Amino acid sequence: MTVRFENYAAQSRLDEEKGWHGMDVDFAKALLDEAGCSYKFVSIPWGRSLKMLEAGNIDLVLSVTQTEERTKFAHFVGPQRMETIVFAMNAERFFDVETMEDLFSLPVPVAIQQGAFYGPRFTQRYEKQLNKGTQFIFVPDNQTKLSLLKHGRIAGFLEEKFNIIFQSTNHPDFMTIKIAPLIINQSPVYYAFSKKSVSEKQLKQLTEAFSSLNKSGRLSEILKKYQLD
Predict the structure, then answer these.
(1) Between β-strands 2-5 and 40-43, what pairing exists: parallel, antiparallel or unpaired?
(2) Are β-strands 60-64 and 74-90 bridged in parallel, bridged antiparallel, or unpaired?
(3) Which of 21, 154, 224, 227 could form a disulfide with 148 if both were Cys (CB 3.0 to 4.6 A apart)?
(4) Is the dihedral of CA 198, 201, 206, 207 positive or negative?
(5) CA-to-CA distance for 30 and 36, rounded, in angstroms?
(6) What does the angle CA 9 – CA 18 – CA 212 come to, to the nearest 5 degrees?
(7) For residues 142 and 216, what is the distance between their CA atoms, to the nearest angstrom?
(8) Distant-in-sequence, close-in-space partners of 90: CB < 8 Å, separation ≥ 6
(9) Helix, strand, or coil here: 105?
(10) 78 neighbors 41 (Cβ within 8 angstroms)
(11) Do the Cβ atoms of 121 and 185 come closer than 8 Å?
(12) Per-residue pLDDT, 173
């Protein structure tokens, strides 16, 4: 089974000593080992990953929000955990963002990732926005939005709160990043398996494995390890 990760934050990191490691790596290994699946990990930016999942070029993406559109091409197993999306900015270039209207009224663009889902409130407001092309910039990966923020090209970006907290103590580019009070979205995220490449028999094994892990407390142990329990 081919599993997609991106070398970023505490969810999935790649280095010579440890190989792939992090919270989503732990979640993937726990489920696939329990289900008796062999697997390999590949590095793919988020912007391409869901299209590849839909095509059956990869089998599994982790920490995916379930939407009506995505259920057309993916089986969802879980939930893994809860995800909180916030607005992150440079503390040295502060913007007062307490409401969704504040976010959509910023004088400088906001970076959002291609293919990402930021919740119904954001989506509904985004569809009404007249100047989408200038108010928001689509980026293919996490490093691009960090570079844009560093060079003052954006006001900030939307990101999972857990990642920002982790990176603020582990990554020099995050040392001056501040989180706005506004919660963009809070929802469960899941294991997403390709309907094209994962059979019904495999899905049954994976669902049963998830249930077993949940009952044994193994998934809770992973969350506790990353202080998300």
Answers:
(1) parallel
(2) unpaired
(3) 154
(4) positive
(5) 10
(6) 75
(7) 34
(8) 149, 150, 156, 176, 177, 178
(9) coil
(10) no
(11) yes
(12) 67
pLDDT of residue 150: 87
CA distance 183 to 119: 10
Residue with tokens 């980026």: 139
DSSP code of residue 138: E
Question: Which amino acid makes up residue 66?
Answer: Q
How far is 26 from 12, CA to CA, in rounded Å? 9
* 25 CB-side CA count, 13 A: 19
pLDDT score recorded for residue 188: 97
- Residue 80 token pair: 């893994």
| The two structure tokens encoding residue 65 | 């929000």
